[in-house]
Amino acid sequence: MLTMKTIDDININERLYQLNLGPQHPSTHGVLHFLLTLDGEVVVKAEMLIGYTHRGHEKMAENRIYEQFYPNSARMDYLSGMIFNTGYCEAVEKLCGIEVPKRARYIRVITSELNRVASHLLGVMDFVMGIGAYTPFLYGWDDREIILDLLETITGSRLTYNYSRFGGVRVDIDQTFCDSARRFIDRMRERFKLYNDLITGNIIFIKRTVGVGVISKDVALDYGVTGPTLRGSGVNYDVRKSEPYSSYEDFNFEIPTKEEGDCMARYLVRLAEIEQSLRIIEQAMNNLPDGPIRADVPCFITPPAGDCYHSFESARGAVGYYIVSDGTRIPYRLKVRAPSFSNLFVMSKIIPGHFVADLVAIFGSIDVTVPEIDR
Amino acid sequence: MNTSYGFKQYVKEIFTGSKSLIIGMGITLKHMFKPIVTVQYPRQKPIMTPHFRGHIEAIIFDDTKSHHCVACGLCARTCPSHVIKVQGEKTKAGDRKYGKQYFIDFTKCSLCGLCVDVCPEKTLKFSDEYELAFYSRWDGVMDIMQRLEERK
């Protein structure tokens, strides 16, 4: 007699199988390895294996003087290198008690916010490309290209800027830069209509993102999620507002939040944040004070013995630099709190029950930079 | 998921789907008649900004028609990647030392610009060359004093 075996007759342990997504996969934004346990097409368990791009930045800091760590700081999160670089300088200035001129602080805000817009554009467009839409990606990079050109005129580089120095910035900005930045702001505000038509209103995009990968408020707070991912879950937290650093208290801006916590909410928060960043840049350029761009600091600084923690908001969340000094020219210990690490590992909690294709959407919407996790 | 997935829903989805398709196609069509935004690289060379950071080079000063390097070695000590080697020379005793050879291993340079910042004689600058591909890794090791002689 012939007996038919259905899928439910098979033992669950025989039915499950493992799939390696990555480390060389186009949707993993770098070198990240997912070890998935699948039941059919449904993910039962997801493990994230990291460490493929570990370069030991924190250990490198213990073997070099404070100035020599500038290039390293931009190479951790290469998409918001300006923000990381500025944050490192601010941390050391806090440790030494250096008073930065107001003009330098405003220039730092302008360049950091331009960098944030570029990073958000790339994050959003990479997410959209990950779930199958290639055209918006090219329009987004068209806008990003203008920011890179703009920053190249003052920093001389397109990705690893190395612009901030202890006590100020390297190069002053001029009227040409401000005019180009104003033109960019006007252009970017008109482009939002294009993005809304092309992405936000697209039926495929809506079906792929609404209700997918919901991170509830409690889970987000438990896992230490920060940045647009946390604000997409309805928590109103931004380091720029809660502990203002580098003259962010002078500017009038809002923190966009969404209650839903799904991929669509995170995408909308990012778009709204671009808008707020443009507002900050405009205000900073209108009220740009005159004065020196660099405080009078020695060529090589020697901080007093002690420690300090400086927290700032990168494009992906709250970053922290913890520096311990023993009174010499070399840091005793430097610890970096990277936002992508916490943001990535919330995925192991929310991914079970989703399809493999949704994993790409969730991963794209969280917007992780892998070299920042590995450091 | 939606449980009441009937014929009405089916027709509605076809309409909404077609609508977003037409909007997307319209944007693409509009952009077809706009000027191209990319630089047609090999035929059209981009102009580098004055602050562009290429590899370092020595400045030719008008007063001496040469560089002002005194081979103090501050750039070599500041370099995070240890890629600079400077050798100086004295023509006679009691004279000032001046830089004779200045080697930089550009393959390991991270273009941070600390050497330019720290130079006490302000004799270093960034070059605006960006086509720096070579066939051997030893081609990346360059003597900038030799390059300065060629530029003279």
Describe the structure.
- The complex is a heterodimer of chains A (375) and B (152).
- Chain A is α+β, with helices and mostly antiparallel strands.
- In chain A, 47% of the residues lie in helices and 12% in strands.
- Chain A has helices at residues 12-15, 57-61, 70-74, 81-96, 102-130, 135-155, 175-200, 203-209, 217-222, 228-231, 239-242, 263-286, 339-345, 347-350, 356-366, 370-374; strands at 17-21, 33-39, 42-49, 164-165, 168-169, 306-313, 318-325, 333-337.
- A three-stranded antiparallel β-sheet of chain A has the order 1-2-3. A three-stranded antiparallel β-sheet of chain A has the order 6-7-8.
- In chain A, a hairpin with a 7-residue loop joins strand 7 (318-325) and strand 8 (333-337).
- In chain A, helix 4 (81-96) packs antiparallel against helix 5 and helix 5 (102-130) packs antiparallel against helix 6.
- The N and C termini of chain A lie far apart (62 Å).
- The mean pLDDT of chain A is 87.
- Chain B has helices at 7-32, 74-78, 114-118, 144-151; strands at residues 56-58, 84-89, 98-105, 124-126, 141-143.
- The longest helix of chain B is centred in the N-terminal third of the chain and has 26 residues, at 7-32.
- By secondary structure, chain B is of the alpha+beta class.
- Chain B has four helices and five strands, in the order H-E-H-E-E-H-E-E-H.
- In chain B, 29% of the residues lie in helices and 15% in strands.
- In chain B, the strands form two sheets. Chain B has a three-stranded antiparallel β-sheet. A two-stranded antiparallel sheet of chain B has the order 1-4.
- In chain B, a hairpin with an 8-residue loop joins strand 2 and strand 3 (98-105).
- The A-B interface holds A 64, 67-72, 75, 135, 139, 142, 145, 152-157, 160, 162, 165, 170-171, 194, 197-198, 201-204, 299 and B 13, 16-17, 19-20, 23-24, 27-28, 31, 37, 49, 51-53, 78-80, 110-114, 117-118, 126.
